[in-house]
């Protein structure tokens, strides 16, 4: 049996070896099928992550490696280092310079959110985005429903909860492709309390709405959900996306290819786009270059 051991420096500059790992030493040495690298050792829950995530990944066909980081600027960037390996799951206890679509920042306090990147073979960006959004919704919608709250997908890639006080962003998805691989980023606000920049007006967290779940359990559910959803055919994916959609039938304002458009969303397909009824007629809008301003 071969064993994999990591001796690389972490992205936050910390060097690891067996002598300074303490209780995490076993997380560095795993059977070859599960090359798990752990850089988390400062919290009892964090020490559980490598083994617990391995147990979820082991029966899955789509993933075979888990990298658990204490801190990194971006799990997306880390996932693409040293030759990205399809089948890799990267999670971080803290992400300091996360990002969303259109270069928007995604910041978090230490120990408060989910920062996860899944490395896959390159594919259709729109489909991957839809798969990730549906995977997130399948996990989060029941949690909010148990608290009497309506939630779902804001096309194409965000997850919102709707409350009497307004709509609040809970999670987001980012797809980046290069060098023959796709990196699917998923960010979820779990315990956040303070926000900065543009997030201050729209963001919220699971804990704000009385939802109690550990980050580990949430990561486990998200990985399993994505593995299941990526096997959906196009019809099942579109149908499930529409089940969770929040904007069909709504009056929206959006920007597409630099043009500002306003109208009613008639139909929506996560891969092909949405049909917008405007004052000048119907327009088909794809998700590649769209920014939903108001809905």
Q: How do you describe this structure in short?
A:
The chain is an alpha+beta fold and 295 residues long. The chain folds into 2 domains: 3-244, BirA Bifunctional Protein, domain 2 (2-Layer Sandwich); 251-294, SH3 type barrels (Roll).
Q: Would you kindly provide a written description of the structure presented here, covering whatever features stand out?
A:
The chain is built from seven helices and 17 strands. Helix 2 (44-57) runs parallel beside helix 6. The protein has helices spanning 25-28, 44-57, 75-79, 125-145, 199-202, 215-229, 234-244, and strands at residues 3-4, 30-31, 37-38, 65-69, 88-92, 98-99, 105-106, 113-121, 150-154, 158-163, 166-178, 181-189, 251-256, 259-269, 273-278, 281-285, 290-294. Helix 2 (44-57) links the parallel strand 3 and strand 4 (65-69). The protein folds into two domains: 3-244, Bira Bifunctional Protein, Domain 2 (BirA Bifunctional Protein, domain 2, 2-Layer Sandwich), CATH 3.30.930; 251-294, SH3 type barrels.
Write the layout of secondary structure elements.
Elements: E1 3-4, H1 25-28, E2 30-31, E3 37-38, H2 44-57, E4 65-69, H3 75-79, E5 88-92, E6 98-99, E7 105-106, E8 113-121, H4 125-145, E9 150-154, E10 158-163, E11 166-178, E12 181-189, H5 199-202, H6 215-229, H7 234-244, E13 251-256, E14 259-269, E15 273-278, E16 281-285, E17 290-294
Parallel strand pairs: 3-4, 4-5
Antiparallel strand pairs: 1-2, 5-8, 6-7, 8-12, 9-10, 10-11, 11-12, 13-14, 13-17, 14-15, 15-16
Helix pairs in contact: 2-6, 4-6, 4-7
């Amino acid at each position: 049996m071969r064993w994999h051991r990591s001796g690389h420096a972490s992205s936050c500059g910390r060097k690891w070896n067996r002598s300074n790992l303490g209780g995490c030493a076993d997380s560095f040495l795993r059977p070859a099928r599960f090359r798990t690298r752990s850089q988390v050792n400062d919290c009892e829950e964090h020490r559980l992550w490598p083994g617990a995530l391995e147990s979820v990944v082991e029966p899955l066909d789509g993933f075979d490696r888990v990298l658990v980081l204490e801190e990194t600027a971006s799990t997306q960037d880390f996932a693409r280092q040293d030759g990205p390996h399809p089948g890799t799951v990267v999670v971080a206890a803290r992400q300091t310079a996360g990002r969303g679509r259109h270069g928007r920042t995604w910041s978090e306090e230490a120990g408060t959110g989910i920062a996860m990147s899944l490395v896959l073979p390159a594919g259709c960006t729109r489909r991957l985005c839809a798969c990730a959004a549906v995977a997130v919704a399948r996990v989060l919608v029941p949690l909010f429903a148990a608290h009497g709250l309506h939630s779902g997908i804001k096309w194409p890639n965000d997850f919102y909860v709707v409350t009497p006080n307004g709509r609040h962003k809970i999670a987001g998805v980012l797809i980046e492709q290069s060098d023959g691989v796709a990196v699917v980023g998923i960010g979820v606000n779990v315990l956040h309390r303070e926000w900065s920049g543009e997030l201050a007006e729209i963001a919220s967290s699971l804990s704000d709405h009385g939802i109690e779940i550990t980050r580990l359990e949430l990561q486990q559910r998200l990985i399993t959900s994505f593995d299941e959803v990526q096997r959906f055919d196009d019809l099942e994916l579109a149908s499930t996306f529409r089940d969770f959609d929040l904007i069909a039938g709504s009056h929206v304002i959006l920007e597409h290819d630099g043009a500002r458009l306003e109208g009613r969303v008639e139909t929506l397909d996560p891969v092909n786009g949405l049909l917008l009824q405007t004052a000048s007629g119907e327009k088909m809008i794809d998700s590649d270059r769209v920014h939903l301003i108001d809905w």
